[in-house]
Amino acid sequence: MIDVTEHREAFLAAAAGTAAVAGSYLVTGWSPSFVVRPVDQAIVNLTPGPIVTFMIETVGDAGHLIHIAMAFAAVIGLFGAVALAGLRIGARVDRSLVGAAAAGAASWLLAAGLTGISAQALGAALPPAAVVGIGGLPAPSNSPGPTSGDDPSAPEGPTGAVDAVRRRTLGAVAGTLAFVAAAVVGRRSLGGDDEPLADAPRSEGATARLREVEASALAVESDDLLGTVSPIGEFYNVDIAEFDPAVAATEWSLTFTGETGTERTVTFDELIDRPVEHRAVTLRCVGEDLNGRKLDNAVWTGTPIRPLLESVDPEGDCDCAMLRGEDGYYVQFPVDVLAEGFLAWGMNGKELPAGHGHPVRVLIPGHWGETNVKWLSEIELLNVEEDGYWEERGWEGTGEVKTVAKLWDEGVTEIDDGRIELAGHAYAGTRGIERVEVSTDGGDSWTDATLSGQLPDADVWRQWRHVFDPDGTHEVVVRAVDGEGNRQIREPSDPSPTGSSGWVRRTVG
Ligand SMILES: Nc1nc2c(c(=O)[nH]1)N[C@H]1C(S)=C(S)[C@@H](COP(=O)(O)O)O[C@H]1N2
Ligand SMILES: [Mo]
């Protein structure tokens, strides 16, 4: 059993640090003003590439939990250290209020240093001040025994005072835990973290334009089975940072820099005033396993990049460009590939959500997910090729996607008559899917699956379906053939560095 009285300062400091984080969360939610965010960002940026790749391949999405846990621990430690200093100052002058004020002021400075000077930083300052003020009160002098001046934390002090100190310390810790729970519940009821950004009022033209996004709402019929369009909340997410940048559309602009004939900056209003298109585009992450879930399709609203690009006269020697996002992400690829792309501000009939790059992201047909820069802010025309964020970390994910046919858990259903229905998605970028072949005997014999209709756009997945009569257990294997007649690569490989290959196999029955 840990002696609370003896470790009183440590308990109070940990409680104060935790209270600071909870208070900040209550005020800011998971926004850029939350004190954990910059520390998490620093951890992500400082982690060496091979470790990042190793984590992605071994623990996958749990890697996020690890760096976020480290960030929480570090921030609790920082605010805890500040609170400890406050406690000691309070004890020295024998006035816990002085200690509380010192801890509060220093916590505010720390929060402002991490996230910028704002009233929101008070969220991280008041709760630890309260913990220091209450937890640091000296032992009551009317309790039997001690006279003021005695060290209240001295374990062998008179029992009454020791009990009072113990109760107060435990009270401060319990109060902090209650505050953490209240902050989480309170924040949720203030509205989820996925709320659209409170942008400044828009011009009438812009409002009308944005209504066109809604009008798109599913020009595409979601046909049967697994669904053709992934709902926004289910569309996969890959981010280098735990927190989405909060970029208001009214503040956003895209600048073409570097080797251009004319530099150019485009605002959000200018962008959405350009010719509007709705395109179905499928994305797949190069880092996913062969039968992984980082493959999704949406209907996006936006405008083609080519005319904008031509208007700035790209002149660089490498005919290549570096694209940058507000979160510090960057990716480089050829200008002629970029010219095929699309700048999207709408997704499935809604304004582009924060997690998918609000207000504007890039969509590059047929290439791996990493080329589709979210929160786009700059397109720099280069003279010499440079590595992008993932290339620096050992990936080669800017090229065309590999061909794949998936068979997820929900793709296996027993239908009423005892037969088994197999269904999945197949994707080959702009090459398209010509056919999906299914084997129910481990690859000895193959049958063509039935394909869903092809969406009108080039860069979309297709659904396949195959029904068979089971006889015991079956080793099911699926493989796709792309529109150029190439069969999916048989030889299995890891995702790193160029994307996984092989054929999906699964025992059924
Ligand atoms: N700014 C920015 N853009 C980004 C990323 C990112 O971390 N930051 N991740 C990339 C990767 S690796 C993929 S697979 C896709 C995922 O897009 P989604 O999160 O909308 O599914 O976005 C790409 N664009
Ligand atoms: Mo990715």
From TrEMBL:
It holds the Pfam family Oxidored_molyb. Residues 484-493 have a biased composition (Basic and acidic residues). GO terms for molecular function: heme binding; molybdenum ion binding; molybdopterin cofactor binding; sulfite oxidase activity. Residues 245-390 form the Oxidoreductase molybdopterin-binding domain. The keyword Secreted does not apply. It comes from the Archaea. This is Oxidoreductase molybdopterin binding protein. The chain crosses the membrane at residues 12-30, 65-85, 97-117. GO terms for biological process: sulfur compound metabolic process. Residues 410-488 form the Moybdenum cofactor oxidoreductase dimerisation domain. Residues 137-161, 484-509 are annotated as: Disordered. It comes from Halorubrum saccharovorum DSM 1137. SUPFAM superfamilies: E set domains, Oxidoreductase molybdopterin-binding domain. Keywords: Membrane, Transmembrane, Transmembrane helix.
